[in-house]
Design a protein that fits this description.
Rossmann fold, binds flavin-adenine dinucleotide
């Protein structure tokens, strides 16, 4: 029988896991090298006393691409979730993105209204600040965007590219209050690590394994056991490798328990 085609993926975040899943589906033998001791990358979910949290910041899964949604839905159940954001301007609670219909509550409304009536036809893409000012006027920009942007990015908005603002800053007039407009939105019921783990189900994973390109194997055949051993940590508690179910137990039991809390939390 022919040896399966072989490939190496660096990183067990959502991108690496998705690539691993697709390549395994196409018949490749897939090895994933992850420098951290845990899978998941930025979307990793941890659990504390049964409560999930994402150490790198909360993520909402959203896509307009039905093929993407159908793919991930094979690997996790989603809790329906629509993210809504509000901001506080003095005593006023406003929707984010801003809605024109709410702006008349502001004491500055007469000035805001004048500025909105004289906006340029196209946004000024010189930098982040010019983009926002040309979208909503100076007053709204100063009230709602400027200080937050400086806090979040640690830089003056004039130093940021307009491209940073394009998908983040809007002035809406449709009273739609969800942050995202994508058709498909949700949160994986058992967290993102569970999703990534399921995507990686057919791959051989090497955790705690930084893999500079110079050490990748040249041959396309199956890895020699000594190569795998060289590139895996053997002593740190969270190192595991398996190939097509050849390891012990299911993918869930192959993970250290603390990284795979397969429990329902609502
Ligand atoms: C605070 C925050 C909130 C976000 N919110 C959302 C959201 O709500 N919705 C959304 O769609 N997106 C959101 N994003 C973006 C999202 O996190 C990323 O698009 C996504 O996680 C990227 O996945 P990735 O696999 O490409 O990269 P990563 O998650 O960074 O994974 C890369 C992996 O590769 C490993 N690696 C890197 N170099 C090596 C090496 N040399 N050898 C071995 N391993 C290596 C890393 O350790 C890591 O595990 C958010 C991002 C942040 C920071």
């Amino acid at each position: 029988m022919n040896s399966p085609k072989s490939c190496v993926i660096v990183g067990a975040g959502l991108t690496g896991a998705t690539a691993a899943c697709e390549l395994a589906r196409q018949g490749f033998r897939v090895r994933v090298y992850e420098r951290a001791d845990v899978i998941g990358g930025h979307v990793r979910t941890e659990w504390l006393r049964g409560i999930p949290y994402e150490p790198h910041g909360a993520h909402i899964f959203h896509t307009d691409d039905t093929a993407v949604w159908n793919l991930v839905s094979k690997y996790t159940d989603f809790v329906p979730y629509q993210h809504r954001v509000t901001i506080r301007v003095r005593s006023h609670q406003l929707s984010w993105p801003l809605q024109r219909s709410e702006l008349s509550r502001l004491e500055e409304w007469p000035q805001v209204e004048r500025e909105l009536s004289s906006l340029p036809p196209e946004p000024d893409t010189t930098n982040f600040a010019t983009y926002c000012r040309s979208l909503m006027g100076q007053t709204l920009y100063d009230l709602c965007v400027r200080n937050y942007t400086m806090k979040q990015w640690g830089r003056a908005p004039e130093e940021l590219s307009a491209s940073v603002a394009v998908n983040r800053v809007e002035l809406r007039d449709d009273d739609y209050r969800g942050l995202f407009r994508d058709r498909h939105q949700g949160w994986p019921e058992r967290g993102y690590t569970d999703l990534v783990e399921n995507l990686l189900d057919s791959a051989e994973i090497h955790l705690g394994s930084r893999s500079p390109a110079t050490t990748w194997p040249r041959s396309r055949g199956p890895a020699s056991p000594s190569w795998s051993r060289r590139h895996s940590t053997t002593s740190s508690a969270v190192n595991w490798a398996r190939w097509n179910g050849a390891g012990s137990g299911s993918s869930a039991s192959s993970f250290p328990a603390s990284h795979s809390p397969r429990r329902r939390w609502w």
